[in-house]
Write a structure and sequence with these properties.
Monooxygenase; repeat; Leucine-rich repeat, LRR (right-handed beta-alpha superhelix); ubl conjugation pathway; 414 residues; globular; LRR_dom_sf; alpha/beta; F-box/LRR-repeat protein 14
Amino acid sequence: METHISCLFPEILAIIFSYLDVKDKGRVAQVCAAWRDASYHKSVWRGVEAKLHLRRANPSLFPSLQTRGIKKVQILSLRRSLSYVIQGMPHIESLNLCGCFNLTDNGLGHAFVQDIPSLRVLNLSLCKQITDSSLGRIAQYLKNLEVLELGGCSNITNTGLLLIAWGLHRLKSLNLRSCRHVSDVGIGHLSGMTRSAAEGCLSLEKLTLQDCQKLTDLSLKHVSKGLNKLKVLNLSFCGGISDAGMIHLSHMTHLCSLNLRSCDNISDTGIMHLAMGSLRLSGLDVSFCDKIGDQSLAYIAQGLYQLKSLSLCSCHISDDGINRMVRQMHELKTLNIGQCVRITDKGLELIADHLTQLTGIDLYGCTKITKRGLERITQLPCLKVLNLGLWQMTESERVKGLGMKRNEPSLREV
């Protein structure tokens, strides 16, 4: 007796269809009635985010999404009222409006008019017309929100953060990238420093403050006192923080990842403060901090030796600093030292000898390294990614000159 795929139970077809990409999931629904029914099983669409252009009325759109159990939506272009989405998907869990430049406080206000307990993730990045008024609506009606993306919403002020601190007590991730009006006062609200007005977002685990130029070390004091559950903190391009602020961060025992990229006032002294505290960091980025030198690597080896990822691009480090660090960094898997122009083949040999767990290394713009140093690096047993970038070498030299084999790491350029 011959068997055919059409003989499979719908449950088996649904399992097979669940492995297809989104476009193919839609295509199999057009093959026949049996496949259509199987493809509409909710397990096929579990975790899928629908990407929509809202241009004209489509009565079948949201019923179709609900039938398939889709609860995540990204709006690619918004020419209809946002309330059209909220009314059509009352059990929505994730709403991505990133880049919807025409979204206004008025439009958002008409959409959020009652509690939406299912909504956990809201992305308003680059919705530049959004102000504190919208944050008031969000704080009032989206009490269960866990992730809020506000990157590039440049009209947000400390008042908006007060509203967030008042209403969004379950928030775990908040992105305030380039919110230029946010200052220490706003971070104080989030950290529960103004309990008489707002409890704060004390469950925060991830906070992105990249390019918030008004922040000073006082913000870090607030964070260290109030946000005890914080695991990831991004302070890149925050020119107002200094070495003194690192003292506050050095005792945040749950902090796993710290980004200080292009923080111009962070020096070896700041790294010393971090290393002398009780941190258990797994990731540290101090790239383009031009006051970071070899002494920082010694401090890292003494107190931050558990790091799995370390980025030092364009820092003033040399082979001597590498020598002072590598013997203690047994868990390091990613090392970014691109544009560290004082690194030579000697430094690469030290890395190859001691950092045997490395899976990726960035040597972009390291102009003093030669084929000899690269040959040592490519012998690292776990290496998968080697980024050379601006380092000049022809394709034939990379393959033939280094004698690379099929199972050796690829040399990737950006």
